From TrEMBL:
Domain Clip: from-to ranges: 32-86
Subcellular location per the Swiss-Prot or TrEMBL entry: Secreted
Protein name: CLIP domain-containing serine protease
GO cellular component: extracellular region
Keywords: Disulfide bond, Glycoprotein, Hydrolase, Protease, Secreted, Serine protease, Signal
Domain notes: The clip domain consists of 35-55 residues which are 'knitted' together usually by 3 conserved disulfide bonds forming a clip-like compact structure.
Family per similarity comment: Belongs to the peptidase S1 family. CLIP subfamily.
GO biological process, one term: proteolysis
Species per Swiss-Prot/TrEMBL record: Photinus pyralis (Common eastern firefly)
UniProt signal peptide: 1-24
Top class in the EC scheme: hydrolase
Pfam entry (one): Trypsin
Peptidase S1 domain mapped to chain residues: 124-380
Amino acid sequence: CTATFRVFWLSIITWLLAFDYLKSETLSNYADCRTPTQEAGACIPIKECKPLLSYLSSVSVITPEISKRLHEYHCGFKGKDVQVCCPSNGLIENHVNDGDSITKHKNFHLLPKDCGAVLVTDRVRSGTIASLFEVPWMALLSYETPNGTEFRCSGSVINNRYILTSAHCLSKNREIKLKEVRCGEYNLNTAIDCEGEDGPAYDTTICAPPVQDIGIEEIIAHPGYNLKSFTNDIGLIRLERPLNVVAENVQPICLPVYTTLKNTTRWFTVTSWGLTGVKSAELHKITNEIVSQEQCQRAYAPVLPMQINEDHLCATQKHEQICYGNSGDPLQIETILDGDIHNVQYGIFSFGPRSCRMTDFPYVFTRVESHLKWILDNLNA
């Protein structure tokens, strides 16, 4: 019965791909190709792609999401035979996220359940400046440069040993070297971050613990990162020692690991030290509206020869803009998880226009949901 089920779905997927052929009545004859994650592959008949057949035999249900992802491997036809881009490394399963099956991953326990805490206080500030302790998962990447030490990228704490960021922040450069990570920062101009009022009759001032500057044990950039297509712009940093996540100013953010956390809303928040166009001393937050891939593609088509795909999330801002220098910033939202409200990260800032005056022009984020398995594959205790 199970084998029959696989054959049935394989025939359905083949029919869907063949439908493109019937519409276009054109033939393609590619020898080499690139998978949806920009890895090398060979364009061969679907029934000869052993990694694809193996993957189909390993999943219990072919969900619409999986069917859609598999459809992206279509690379042409040979006669009337449907061809797919069969990855040379044989890792089809690394490219498709099977919903809640991610919770069965051997490293799933390394993502803490106590994550993305929502600040419950009357101190939450209005406007675009974040409050102290409101975004405790923010991390700053410190680089050695010819001009001295500089913070050039951001990231997010996902557990006490790992920082999630953009792959291009991890690129090797002779003159610029990633040195360490700072967590628990709020105001770049103060040694100790405090908030509140100090009056003659009362003192409402609260202060944060010191920042945590920690060296780097390992840099893990996605092997499929492509600078030209901006795909797989995601990476991890393993710290040389654990963070103190008991501190109020250092906490991990949640990732969208459950199907109930699938992205269904239009409004997200980006947090950054660079939202106002120049490096801001205080941590900022700004609301973003998600736009369609089609709208995003139309915007970039005249300036960038690239394809906006499922690996990307695009968002616009109506007022203050994300500006150059915000690479690695998290795109997040407050949502329900296990009956409580948590902050969940859905995107990592990848690229956008350098001018802050380009209102309504979309900024592009790497979609975290597309890389959950890769993230878990690269975590260690």
